[in-house]
Specification:
The protein is mainly α. It has two domains: 48 residues; 214 residues, MetI-like fold (Orthogonal Bundle). A two-stranded antiparallel sheet has the order 1-2. Strand 1 and strand 2 form a beta hairpin. Helix 4 packs parallel to helix 7. The longest helix has 32 residues. It is globular and about 75 Å long. The chain starts with a helix and ends in a 7-residue tail after the last helix. The model has no long low-confidence stretch (mean pLDDT 88).
């Protein structure tokens, strides 16, 4: 066979395993969930009835849905900017050869390897004396802190990997031009790290939109629904109320929101990417 054949078709063979996983664990479940969103399981879970857009109508008319959606957006706005900026600052600080720097990196990364359930239980115990988890005004923010604490080390490692690609001669040129340390990183480091910043922004946004374990372990959505997020609401409707059609409709809405946020992140950070010119 000609060499062009191998160059054209062989790379696609390596995509087959990933494609199979996507088909069976994403596309098929999505279409199944999309079909479920047009059915009602309220009267008979074994024989659902077709209700068309009724689930979506009920969803958009439910005050609790908008409450959980608002809580979720507050969670995203509170968590994502900090998980984009703080790990970047930490990565720049630890990206140097100093005595004991590896120990410092390890300490920062330890929360990542701790089970989220264990971390939630531990922080729930820590918060017990403060009353923050039982106060509607502070419960959501207390959980947000745990998410930030857990994610700092993970995103720090992502930035550290990208920092190795920044040409050192550009840093040296900036120093010769009299740039301060902050100016050097703003002019050289940040533009080169835009792909990493985009990646961290998208991953952290999706994770924040889908936050569940922290809420389930620490607050159960309380008190007074003050910390209930959209995914926890979906869980309640699907597995506690067995209202699978309604929960599926909420899941479809969540997917659309996540897609919009991801596209916005990509378009926004592309504008500041380093072009090398």
């Amino acid at each position: 066979m000609p060499k062009n054949y191998y160059k054209t078709f062989v790379p696609y063979l390596f995509l087959i395993p990933a494609g199979v996983i996507l088909v069976f664990f994403f596309f098929i479940p999505f279409f199944e969930s999309f079909l479920l969103s047009f059915k009602s399981y309220r009267h008979d879970i074994y024989n659902p009835e077709w209700v068309g857009l009724d689930n979506y109508t009920s969803l958009f008319n439910a005050p609790i849905f908008w409450k959980t959606l608002l809580n979720t957006f507050i969670y995203v706005l509170g968590v994502v900017p900090l998980l984009v900026v703080l790990p970047l600052i930490i990565a720049i600080i630890v990206n140097r050869k100093l005595v004991g720097i590896n120990i410092f990196r390890t300490i920062i990364y330890i929360p990542v390897i701790v089970s989220l359930v264990v971390a939630g239980i531990a922080w729930k115990w820590v918060y017990a004396s403060t009353g923050w988890l039982t106060n509607p005004d502070t419960a959501l923010y207390a959980v947000m802190f745990v998410t930030i604490w857990k994610g700092l080390g993970y995103y720090m490692v992502v930035y550290l990997a990208y920092l190795t690609t920044v040409p050192k001669d550009l840093w040296e040129a900036a120093e010769i031009d009299g740039a301060t340390s902050i100016q050097k990183h703003l002019a050289v480091t940040v533009p080169h790290l835009m792909p990493a910043i985009t990646l961290v922004s998208i991953i952290s946004s999706i994770s924040a939109m889908k936050v569940f374990v922290e809420i389930y372990v620490m607050t159960k959505g309380g008190p007074l629904n003050s910390s209930k997020t959209i995914v926890y609401y979906i869980y309640q409707r699907a597995f506690e109320n067995l209202d699978l059609g309604y929960a599926s409709a909420a899941g479809v809405v969540l997917l659309v929101i996540i897609m919009v946020i991801s596209i916005f992140n990509v378009k926004f950070f592309e504008k500041g990417s380093y072009s090398g010119q």
